[in-house]
Specification:
The protein is an alpha+beta fold and 345 residues long. The chain has one domain: 3-Layer(aba) Sandwich (Beta-lactamase), CATH 3.40.710.10. 32% of the residues lie in helices and 19% in strands. α2 packs across α6 (151-165). The two termini are 15 Å apart.
């Protein structure tokens, strides 16, 4: 009971340190599972859905690698294999899109993207408009580091999955991931949550509904495709993936081959930190003090999330998902570190 009490104290204290309405945390080990709730949320929200933000990229990468296993794609395929008008990005490969080494500009960093999301949350830009603007801007100057995060690259992967399959992105993800893993509460979001079935989500930049984004934000503002899931099913996805139940060993080797990024998991000055690298749809921290970590973080209007799988020395593992029901500017990796350190201790 002392472990559960300590974990609860950590998220209660973090609620005020971070400055968010509510927190949900799900922790699983080989012998222990725990759900933590703090703030305005309660235990009825454990099984409620939320936008998993950029965690969705892991699902996209799994679908691409599934098509590679089926012989429908090759990681060396170029954008020109799928798009007629794609200059100057014609020689960018699928692998480069997956590990963010394409140097294609991130549409989220366009000067007017965030202001348009806030001003017109129900009217997302089309993928054609985003592609045209990205191609006009051209490649970013990435001479300083190999991998720079690009949502635009994952938008192209979304479109490639649809072109190859002849199906909607939502159907591809359902067929290849959701149904085989029996993820009953997971789906690709395609409409505004007008009935407000998702976990309450707050963003001070949204004027209507006291900043609750649910009845006004269209998920297609995330042109990469965005999924809804809950903390249990997010943990299930990462546990099954990292324990070899979804992809072949050769596909996992490709996915977990990382390239350098400019980001740290936790403060670069903290005692417990690690340099992240970008694999294929997954973040990798091979040198984290507690053991290797694989997962992803995400921010989108109303939510910040961090989830993944930690391989602790001694053959143990920790699978986790942490949700803040507001956007705070960065995923809650620091909170995850505190919880993981307490469990290992």
């Amino acid at each position: 009971m002392s472990l559960e009490r300590d974990l609860q104290q950590i998220i209660d204290e973090s609620l005020f340190e971070i400055g968010c309405p509510g927190i949900i945390a799900r922790i699983e080990t080989d012998t222990f599972s725990w759900n933590g709730i703090s703030g305005t949320l309660d235990f009825a929200d454990i099984d409620r859905g939320f936008y998993i933000c950029s965690l969705s990229k892991t699902y996209t990468a799994i679908a691409i690698l599934k098509f590679v296993e089926q012989g429908k794609l090759n990681l060396g395929n170029r954008l020109s294999d799928f798009f007629d008008e794609i200059t100057p990005f014609q020689d960018v490969t699928i692998r480069q899109l997956l590990n963010h080494s394409s140097h294609i500009p991130d549409y989220v960093l366009f000067d007017d993207y965030l202001s348009q999301v806030n001003q017109s949350p129900q009217a997302p830009w089309s993928r054609e408009v985003i592609s045209k603007r990205a191609r006009k801007a051209g490649f970013i100057d990435a001479s300083d580091i190999a991998s720079h995060y690009s949502n635009t690259g994952y938008m192209y992967l979304y479109q490639i999955l649809e072109k190859i399959s002849g199906k909607k992105f939502s159907e591809v993800i359902k067929d290849l991931i959701i149904d085989p893993l029996e993820l009953r509460s997971t789906y690709v979001a395609t409409e505004i949550d007008r009935e407000r079935v998702l976990i309450p989500a707050h963003d001070p930049n949204f004027i209507e509904f006291d900043g609750d984004i649910r009845g006004q934000y269209h998920p297609d503002w995330c042109a990469t495709g965005i999924l809804v899931s809950n903390v249990r099913e997010v943990c299930s996805l990462y546990r099954n993936l990292l324990e070899g139940a979804i992809l072949t060993s050769s596909s996992m080797a490709e996915m977990l081959h990382g390239i350098e990024t400019p980001f740290w998991m936790g403060s670069s000055k903290a005692l417990s930190n690690g340099k992240l690298s970008n694999g294929l749809g997954i973040k990798i921290c091979d040198e984290f003090p507690l053991g290797p970590f694989w997962g992803h973080g995400g921010d989108c209007p109303g939510y910040s999330v961090w989830a993944g799988y930690l391989d602790v020395s001694g053959g143990q593992s920790i699978t986790s998902c942490i949700l803040l029901n507001t956007i705070v500017g960065c995923p809650p990796a620091g909170l995850w570190i505190k919880l993981a350190e307490r469990i290992v201790s």
